[in-house]
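#dry-run=false #mode=assembly
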Amino acid sequence: MKSSVKNIFPRSDFHSGVLEMIKFKASPRALEISYAIRDLVLVAEKIAKETNEKILYLNIGDPGQFDFKLPDHMKKALCNAVNEDYNFYAHSAGLPELRHAIVEYEKRKNGISLSVDDVFVTSGTAEAINAILAAAFLPGEEILIPSPIYPPYLSAAKFFGVNPVEYNTIEEEGWIPDLDDMRKKVSTRTKALIIINPNNPTGAVYSNKLVKDLIDFAGEYDLFVVSDEIYDQIVYDINKAPNTASLANDIPVLGLFGLSKVYLATGWRLGYVYKHDPNNVLDEIWSAIMKFLTVRISASTPAQKAAIAALLGSQEHIKVLVKRLKERRDFFYRRINEIEGISTQLPKGAFYIFPKIEIPSYSDDDFGFVLDLLKSKKVLFVHGSGFGRKGRGHFRSVFLPPIHVLEEALDRLERFVKEIKK
Ligand SMILES: Cc1ncc(COP(=O)(O)O)c(C=O)c1O
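#status=ok
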């Protein structure tokens, strides 16, 4: 495959004294990695520099970049961990005291019974995704992923030689998985089903019944389930999204969680993967994941120590977080629906909204829409096609900023839409 990056550097040849061009090729599979959420950030920074205008960034799901800050007991716990000399390499599976805390936390939160050996601590949920895709599959095996999807599942699968097969979700019904389509997409090579609930990028939250149907589907086709639950307590009309493992009985589940969203600590880079595996069918995969985690040594030790305070300490900030986010969601949803040419489903969880572009000149060109909006009105969203096939014709926005910022961004969007419709 031809590399798209020019890797040509002049280098002097010490023997001949002749300056020659030497070309170092990079790994094609690394060059192919893409992460739509940050794709246009460099362009935005360049535009900001050239025009001296402020860009409204609504592309990245990082609460800490807006007015959401960690509860004080978490900040103190991190300082204490450093002062108490928790600055060494931890065990690759995680600090034993954190793994115990996770067992207790999962019991309290989801009612599931894990043992300490069923938990591995990772550098963010992102590393858990990589570890699973690196360790659990033979080349060419397939995973079923929802479309649209949080992009690292697609790129990590491709990187590690796993074939990601996108199943449709039904936008009109709140972006829920289309079980009929899943039946068409499953094959003898399919090994796992990925669920993200609550969902990024759509904000969908699956009902108990739907999660059970998905588990039954996995059982019927002999798949294990990877359940990404990083937004589980950020839901607006119920208390908590249904937990997959607690409904799974004997179907094997790898559950993923992290401190970045519910606990607002994106920069701590802390997450974990747990296994619910009553029939021990995941034993070999679990050992392979451990091997993968061993070579990266360990997740940040001070962050691990402090995570105990996050998981087992006061949970009061979550109510406040959800209440504030709900006000922002309601505002965003109401205001965007006033803009002719854009329509959207109501997000039921997480902090993303995934509107549809209904302007003929752009309905198939979500990238052009996002880029032209950025150039013309200095607002940055993420193009929907960066989230897979079903994302085409859409864009993703966060509703994390304060309402006056959202209002400004949506006013600018409205002006842009009026101009392009003329
Ligand atoms: C669905 C989903 N999974 C995983 C992650 C990665 O989170 P972390 O910061 O824990 O690596 C994100 C981040 O946006 C996400 O949306």
